[in-house]
Design a protein that fits this description.
Blueprint (H helix, E strand, L loop, with lengths): L9 E10 L2 E11 L4 E5 L6 H9 L6 E6 L2 E2 L5 H6 L2 E4 L11 H8 L5 H6 L5 H13 L15 H13 L5 E5 L7 H14 L4 E5 L3 H7 L2 E6 L2 E6 L1 H6 L1 H8 L2
Parallel strand pairs: 3-8, 3-9, 6-7, 7-8
Antiparallel strand pairs: 1-2, 1-4, 4-5, 9-10
Helix pairs in contact: 3-5, 3-6, 6-7
Bound molecules: adenosine-5'-diphosphate and magnesium ion.
């Protein structure tokens, strides 16, 4: 029998982090379901990136609690969070520029071999199949032999998403994944993100409201480290508080 989880997969409760007295995240609470795609928006400096830092373990909170699938993440080490399925994409794409698309995906395949081990490892068909499956989803199936530094900025963003997907994380954290993408790439990315959220919880930080609308997810608005509003895109765009601090600018 599979374990029974509480209603929410991710529970962030009363979370606070203080940097020399400045609260970048301030008594913030958010619940995300399994199979949910959640978009987090808010003005610059609202604490969005810091929130992801706290969830992935890059930053330790001053107070509050983070629970994922009954694992208490609050003070868990970053690598231990990866082991329970937390995958994080940072704002700037970080791929191995000299390695091909195939090799970038291969070194990300969970095996504990690391970059050098993977390069000399005899490829099993299981690994190759998985790489092809992910490469298709991230629109790079025809670029498998292309070195990553020859990809467009948008394709690098996709590759980095693929490097996370290859280990099938249960919680996927993406910080502004369409930054620097063309209109066409953004459209493809919206399809990709709506597709990959099945079977996991996904949190996306975004500020392009047209793109947020395409994602069609529940939206959480942060302001000065606090929760300002939560709801669907129509509710958010009509919310006077959100218009005042964010959308009006
Ligand atoms: N390590 C840190 N030390 C001090 N201040 C920080 C640190 N990290 C973030 N901040 C501050 O916290 C606030 C929120 O930052 P951030 O989470 O990056 O906002 P956002 O991603 O919403 O633009 C900013 O004022 C930023 O300068
Ligand atoms: Mg940020």
């Amino acid at each position: 029998m599979s374990p029974v989880y509480p209603h929410y997969a991710l529970e962030v409760e009363d979370l606070t982090v203080s940097f020399d007295g400045f609260k970048a995240v301030d008594n913030f609470t958010m619940y995300v379901e399994k199979d949910e795609l959640r978009t987090v928006i808010g003005p610059n400096g609202a604490g969005k990136t810091t929130l992801l830092d706290l969830i992935c373990g890059r930053t330790r909170p001053s107070a509050g609690k983070i629970t994922f699938m009954e694992h208490d993440l609050t003070y868990m080490a970053e690598q231990a969070r990866v082991a329970v399925g937390v995958g994080r994409k940072f704002q700037t794409p970080s791929v191995y520029p000299k390695l091909t698309v195939f090799e970038n995906l291969e070194v990300s395949y969970p095996s504990g071999r690391g970059v050098w081990g993977a390069l000399f490892f005899k490829r099993s068909s299981e690994v190759v199949d998985r790489i092809h499956e992910v490469a298709k989803r991230i629109f790079l199936i025809d670029q498998l032999k292309t070195p990553a530094d020859l990809l467009s900025h948008g394709q690098k963003q996709w590759l980095e998403i693929g490097m996370l997907l290859i280990s099938d994380p249960a919680l996927l954290l993406l910080d502004e994944p369409v930054a620097g993408m063309t209109v066409r790439e953004r459209e493809q990315t919206a399809d990709l993100l709506r597709d990959i959220c099945h079977g996991r919880s996904t949190i996306i930080i975004e500020h392009d409201m047209k793109f947020v609308r395409k994602l069609a997810s529940k939206v959480t608005v942060m302001h000065q480290g606090k929760l300002l509003a939560e709801g669907n895109i129509d509710e958010i765009e009509e919310n006077p508080k959100v218009i005042e601090v964010y959308l009006g600018h």
